[in-house]
Amino acid sequence: MFMDITITATAKSLLQATKLLEVGVDVLYIGNVKFGVRLVHSFTREELKKIILMAHQAGAKVAVAVNALMHPEKIKSVLKYLRFLENFWADYIVVSDPGVIFLLQKKKLNLAYVYEASVFVTSAKQVNFWAKKGATLAVLARELPAKELFLMRDKFLIPTEILVYGATVIQHSKRFLLQNYFHFIKADENPSRSRNWFLVEPQNPHLHYSIFEDCHGTHIFANNDLNLLLELDKLSSWGYHHWKLDGLYTPEENFIKIVELFVKAKLMIKAGKWDSLKASLLNESVRFYHPENRGLDAGFFILDPKDIN
Q1: What is the CATH number of domain 6-168+224-307?
Q2: Mean pLDDT within 190-213
């Protein structure tokens, strides 16, 4: 089921998008901050057009994030943006707000959509609900352990995407929590991602959660970033063939190297040349290129479902 492996990667610049296509990425994930959340970069419409054209010339596709919560002021302007993406042949949009899906269908726009609701997509029933509403792909929550993924594998009506590398968001608030805190302590600080802020639990200083603000509010991430390179053969054998890599906190050149390692893994698995030694070597290289100030582990994948509260 769903035999071909597809690798999706975020892009921070036109140059990085070009290099990601050169190393073998199948789908580029991009967008504009007005309509997309937790983007590694906010591209202008002119840049979006260039990347879509460039990807298509390379035989790849483009997924555009339209996954913000569309409050009334944004719903009024999102239709023009959707028509722009339709006119310039974006392959998919990534959606979390049902209001956007309603507009797609009401206006009969020729845009395929991927359903993504972060931590909430945890069952085949939910995936299949949106499949029946027209979704062509669904993004699974990062909090699903391997045992649950194994039990679900044959129940999906459409393919599902799994994050195999990158930061894992665990909480989002429309409130500007960092700004409010800095105002309270009378500090003139920048709450954006460029400052690399962390939350630390007083009882456990080893737990530190990345936090930043943008126009959508406050975003908080898991203590460690995710790396499922050692689990790719399992995912593939279970029918999970859509893998995403997110370079939100990884320097541009390092992220290209990491993506290239996952592309090599994909090719080995498809050719039947995957083994534990090759996996281990690739995994060590991922750790080498991963930022030193950020943890890295397999997240919920290796947990027993009974241990998850």
Answers
A1: 3.20.20.110
A2: 85
